[in-house]
Write a structure and sequence with these properties.
Oligomer: single chain
Order of helices and strands: EHEHEHEHEHEHEHEEEEEEEHHEEE
CATH superfamily of the largest domain: Dihydrodipicolinate Reductase, domain 2
Largest sheet: 9 strands, mixed
Number of helices: 9
CATH topology of the largest domain: Dihydrodipicolinate Reductase, domain 2
Strand content: 25-35%
Length: 363
């Protein structure tokens, strides 16, 4: 594309935006050119960390005067669509934090706009850039654990309450992005139940159930009211099981050679016996790498090469469709909500950090 140094602006200097700014500023082919936030105190703090960056309180001004090639949007969910639409309309490549928008309809508009202008639209499903999640995907695709039977995920902590979205929209996108990536398809139905204990009408504890083809199941439990910080996912296969504990300082992935075997033939109930296999547990070696740094580098690579991101707009839309179904189920007291299958998600090879990985995208 002829771009030597890629000029990027960051919109939103609250919780996650400064992390984007730090990583972008440390990448040699990137220039952290501008940051934008309504809060002057936040801008002042970012200016002390990055003295050469231009600060704006208006997104329109940053787009007009920043001389940018792309923008990272790390603001509240309800502002994602408006800001992303402005950036894409102005011809800027755009990375939007999760979830991509507050509705799948808005996601469709962004996908169409980016395609019409041949721009990169990427969503911040950061865990898909984690070496641990990529290792899990590699193990599953190789058939090492057999056929997936179910996935159980817990993402819990005390505090960090949101006012405009419930705990499902806040925490579940991390788990959903991993589950959809590993499963390689959208669920057929979604159930979700929960309760609001602190802020009326904003659920702070929820449990979601996703039913996939081939009798596969996934559950996600999210809470802002748990006394411990928990980030754990268990993937149970017909041959082995994987436990992924993101809070663990070391050995985040453990693989257990354990399973239940059902006898193929028996003539009477007395002859029926389950066989329990208990094998070894092993921990694969995985080189530590900050997922957000990999994500930011991938954004730059896609801008430079005009390639399709690992987490493109179609993936962002798929995840929002699941969240919408979960919200619908919450309103129906946990009743199952069907997702119209527009097509099985397909696996497309993509280069990430010089290695061949799999991109999950809608057909």
């Amino acid at each position: 594309m002829g771009i030597q140094t890629i000029r990027i602006g960051v919109a939103g200097c609250g919780y996650w935006g400064p992390n984007h700014a730090r990583n972008l500023n440390n990448l040699p082919e990137c220039c952290l050119a501008a940051v934008c936030d309504r809060d002057l105190q936040r801008l002042t703090h970012l200016k002390t960390l990055h003295p050469n960056v231009e600060c704006y309180t208006s997104m329109d001004e940053m787009i007009e005067h920043g001389r940018l090639d792309g923008v990272v949007i790390a603001t509240g969910v309800n502002s994602h669509f408006v800001l992303a639409q402005k950036c894409l309309t102005a011809g800027l490549h755009t990375l939007v934090e999760k979830p991509m928008a507050a509705s799948s309809e808005d996601c469709d508009k962004l996908v169409d706009l980016a395609a019409a202008r041949s721009l990169v639209l990427m969503v911040g499903h950061t865990f898909l850039y984690s070496p641990h999640v990529r290792k899990i995907k590699e193990i599953v695709d190789a058939g090492d654990i057999g056929e997936i039977q179910y996935i159980s995920s817990r993402r819990l902590n005390l505090g960090l309450f949101q006012k405009d979205i419930n705990v499902t929209w806040d925490l579940a996108p991390h788990d959903l992005s991993i589950i959809l990536y590993v499963m390689g398809e959208m669920p057929m139905t979604v159930n979700c139940c929960g309760k609001a204990h602190v802020s009326r009408g904003v659920e702070d504890v929820t449990t979601m159930c996703l039913v996939f083809r081939k009798n596969r199941l996934a559950t996600i439990h999210n809470s802002w009211l748990d006394p411990r910080k928990v980030r754990e996912m268990t993937i149970v296969g017909t041959r082995r099981m994987i436990v992924y504990d993101d809070v663990a300082p070391l050995e985040k992935i453990r693989i257990y050679d354990s399973r239940v075997e059902v006898p193929p033939h028996y003539d009477s109930f007395a002859e029926f016996h389950y066989a329990y296999h208990y094998g070894d547990m092993y921990v694969p070696y995985i080189r530590q790498e900050e997922p957000l740094k990999v994500e930011c580098q991938h954004f730059l690579d896609c801008i430079r090469g005009g390639s399709k991101p690992l987490t493109d707009g179609a993936q962002g839309r798929d995840l929002v469709r699941v969240l919408e179904a979960a919200s619908d189920s919450l309103r129906r007291s946990g009743s199952a909500v069907s997702l119209a299958m527009e097509g099985k998600r397909s696996e497309v090879p993509v280069e990430l950090n010089g290695q061949s990985h799999l991109e999950v995208a809608a057909k």
